[in-house]
Design a protein that fits this description.
Elements: E1 5-7, E2 10-11, H1 20-33, H2 46-58, H3 66-73, H4 77-90, H5 98-107, H6 129-137, E3 143-149, H7 152-158, H8 163-180, E4 188-195, E5 202-209, H9 219-233, H10 235-269, H11 275-289, H12 302-317, H13 319-336, H14 357-368, H15 392-398, H16 404-407, H17 419-429, H18 433-443, H19 453-465, H20 469-481, H21 489-501, H22 505-517, H23 525-537, H24 541-553, H25 561-573, H26 577-589, H27 597-609, H28 613-625, H29 633-645, H30 649-661, H31 669-681, H32 685-695, H33 700-725, H34 734-746
Antiparallel strand pairs: 1-3, 2-3, 3-5, 4-5
């Protein structure tokens, strides 16, 4: 693993000579111990090994050096020599005094020289060696002697095997170093020299203040200097890491997301509900009823908190939750590995502050057990709304086929008994692209006796090759969506891009939507927005809606409520029912835009009348609750029934509960069971659990409460994993998050 080693010892004023043997060894190094090509790979001499043992006893922290690692791995004369020399340089007191130290690092062998010596400082300030020696040696305060070391392979790869790169680095980071040393920038003094060692090139930096009382370097300050220097040194590596992480996240989304989705599905199915959770919820409910303080975790007594923690512990026992928690930790460790090799211990879920929100959810769920309010259990509804797709007829109408006189033939030429087919066939065989498309369309009609999708595809390709954009769009979509043709994304994109070049708005929409989702190609947000915008500018209501929804959700592009509202309004005013529904819901909620109940109800009603099942369900829900609109049970039942007729599992479940409870309708057990059974068939986990408990004669309220908790926790994990994938970094504390953001900004990585 690439890494940087930083040591920050300091020389006190009037340093005295000691460890003479070590100094003597250094003095003799070039003449005695410097290995040549014939000897450097020989085993370290007895004298070298003796000196190393003495050094390790005197300076045990030297075991952290890269050079020591190299020496342990291969005990050669070369490695021994570099390790000894490095310790000597790290501990400047070995030189007896500052003057000797300054002279040594400026002139020692392999110090890269800028002029007659190797010292440099701030840009535009030439260094006179004698003056630098005098300034450092006569300074009345401490002088820190930072040594920054890299592996040779890392230095070469990153460009830090020349003095120029180090000059640029230290000059750009001098204020950061001064800040961590508690030195005012104007008082900061420093000199540095680069030693281009064969294995571990390194930089020596002497740093001090013109005010002798000012410097103060803590362990945290050293860590920060190391971190900031590493961020810059490994900038290119980190960009590559982020790219790899992006690739990993994409893989997680495309492949691992299937695992997560499967886990969520099994959580949602209510396959196994821990009965202990239900019992503990009732215990918690009982204690909360006797609690006078705020019903929030932080205000509860320790014994009540322990019940909440116990419920979290029981939730963690669920195999699905445990797998999601492991996935979250995997992502968490991937983030902090960029900053430290030391991984924190994995905490129990109940002790992890990142998930403290679940505790208040548990409290609310416990309180709901004694609440008579009707519940809908429709948390996942936003994920269930299908994406919008234009019909081929709509696409054709936007670019109308020529008149029959242009594609047909004279009455004398019209054969019987199938004139339309033969008319189109005749013109198609003559190369008429419109007739070729029309013929393909006829052959794709399942009601037609001429139904022949294989031949239809061939005619579509003929038409597309002649530049007819509708044919290009259709054949592209067919190969993209496996409609009458095998899935072939590259071939699909060939035709969609051909249509897009001719400014076909539907090809622009489909391409943009595909790039936005990243489902069949690598996600490209910039390209997606560009294509969707081009389509929207032509009045395409689907593109306008998709772009508006993307700005509203803020998952793939930065959230922009103003743009979202504008685009959704344009699409809704064009009569697009999906936009009407989303806009109505947005205006009704009033959380992100100004609440406007009349306008919201108008949009929702328009969408509901166009048979939008979600709008129908929401209208029924609103009329039933009677909070922001007058309660109207008749209207509620009407719209819920309309939605249920279309197989909306939420409407089926809500109606089933109403008939089961006898709420706002006459109790009708058989109808309730039928509706709940239908909801189960459409994948509603609450309906499945409710039916199961009805059949087993159990109290279903605690079971539903337990399932709600599991589903909510699953959703929290899913959102956290998705946030990390998008670079929102919800996995780390605020301090680390700010460091990561700063790192990304410094690397030129776009912030989400």
């Amino acid at each position: 693993m690439a890494k940087i080693i930083l040591k920050s010892p300091y020389l006190k004023p009037n340093a005295v000579k000691h460890l003479a043997n070590y100094t003597k060894y250094i003095a003799k190094r070039d003449g005695v111990e410097m290995p040549d090509d014939s000897k450097k790979f020989l085993e370290a001499t007895a004298n070298q090994q003796k000196v190393i043992a003495e050094l390790l006893a005197a300076y045990p922290d030297s075991r952290e050096l890269n050079e020591f690692e190299d020496y342990c791995r291969n005990i050669t004369r070369e490695n021994a020599d570099e390790f000894i020399l490095r310790i000597a340089e790290t501990h400047g007191e070995l030189f007896g005094n500052r003057q000797n130290y300054v002279s040594y690092i400026a002139t020692r062998p392999r110090a890269e020289k800028i002029a007659e010596h190797g010292l440099f400082t701030d840009d535009g300030v030439p260094v006179v060696l004698a003056q630098a020696v005098k300034e450092v040696s006569e300074h009345t305060g401490n002088v820190w002697t930072h040594i920054i070391s890299l592996r040779r392979e890392d230095a070469r790869r990153l460009g830090y095997d020349t003095v120029d790169q180090w000059q640029t680095l230290l000059r750009s980071q001098r204020n950061m170093i001064a800040q961590q040393m508690k030195i005012k920038p104007g008082n900061f003094r420093w000199y540095a020299a680069f030693h281009n060692e064969s294995h571990h090139p390194h930089i020596h930096m002497m740093a001090f203040s013109s005010d002798p009382k000012e410097p103060y370097l803590t362990e945290q300050g050293i860590r920060t200097i190391k971190s900031e220097l590493a961020k810059e040194i490994f900038r290119q590596d980190n960009i590559s890491i982020y790219q790899k992480q992006t690739g990993y996240r994409d893989t997680l989304r495309k492949q691992g997301a299937e695992i997560i989705a499967d886990i969520i599905r099994r959580i949602n199915s209510g396959e196994s509900i821990n009965p202990v959770i239900g019992e503990m919820l009732y215990r918690l409910n009982d204690r909360l009823q006797k609690t006078n303080s705020k019903k929030v975790y932080g205000y509860l007594k320790p014994e009540v908190k322990s019940i909440v923690d116990g419920i979290v512990d029981e939730l963690e026992k669920d195999e699905n939750i445990r797998r999601l928690y492991d996935l979250w930790y995997e992502q968490y460790f991937n983030v902090i590995r960029n900053y430290t090799d030391t991984m924190p211990d994995k905490l129990p879920l109940s002790q992890n502050k990142e998930f403290k929100s679940i505790k208040n959810s548990i409290i609310q769920e416990a309180l709901a057990l004694s609440d008579e309010q009707f519940t809908f259990e429709d948390e996942q509804i936003n994920n269930d709304i299908p994406s919008a797709e234009p019909s081929y007829t709509e696409v054709e109408n936007a670019e109308s086929l020529p008149l029959q006189s242009e594609t047909g033939f004279s009455e004398q030429e019209t054969p019987a008994p199938d004139p339309e087919y033969f008319r189109l066939l005749s013109q198609a065989e003559k190369g008429n692209r419109y007739a070729q498309y029309g013929l393909a369309k006829l052959l794709l009609d399942r009601e037609s006796e001429r139904y022949d999708p294989g031949t239809a595809v061939e005619w579509l390709i003929e038409s597309a090759q002649k530049g007819y954009t509708v044919a290009q769009y259709r054949i592209g979509k067919m190969y993209l969506r496996s409609e009458h043709a095998p899935k072939d994304v590259m071939y699909a994109f060939r035709w969609l891009e051909a249509a897009e070049k001719q400014n076909n708005q539907y090809a622009q929409y489909l391409l943009g939507k595909t790039y936005l989702s990243g489902s069949d190609v690598m996600q490209d947000i910039e390209k997606a927005v560009d294509l969707l915008t081009k389509s929207a500018d032509q009045g395409n209501r689907y593109a306008t809606y998709t772009l508006g929804k993307a700005y509203l959700d803020g998952k793939d592009i930065p959230k922009d409520i103003g743009k979202a509202l504008e685009l959704l309004t344009v699409s809704a005013d064009k009569g697009f029912e999906a936009a009407e529904y989303v806009l109505g819901k947005l205006l009704f909620g009033g959380e992100q835009v100004s609440k406007d109940i009349p306008k919201a109800m108008d949009y929702l009603t328009k969408a509901a009348l166009k048979r939008n099942q979600f709008a129908q369900y929401l209208l029924g829900k609103l009329y039933l609750a009677g909070e922001d609109v007058p309660k109207d049970s008749v209207q509620a039942i009407y719209w819920l029934s309309k939605s249920a007729e279309q197989g909306n599992m939420y409407a089926e479940y809500a109606l089933g509960k109403l008939y089961l409870y006898g709420r706002d309708v006459e109790r009708y057990f058989e109808k309730a069971i039928a509706l709940l059974t239908a909801a189960v068939g459409h994948g509603n986990p609450y309906a499945a659990l409710l039916l199961q408990n009805i059949r087993n004669n159990r109290n279903w309220s605690y079971a539903l409460g337990s399932l709600r908790l599991l589903i909510q926790l699953g959703r929290i994990f899913q959102n956290r994993l998705d946030d990390e994938r998008k670079g929102k970094i919800g996995l780390v504390d605020k301090k680390l998050r700010s460091q990561i953001d700063a790192k990304k900004a410094a690397h030129g990585i776009r912030q989400e």
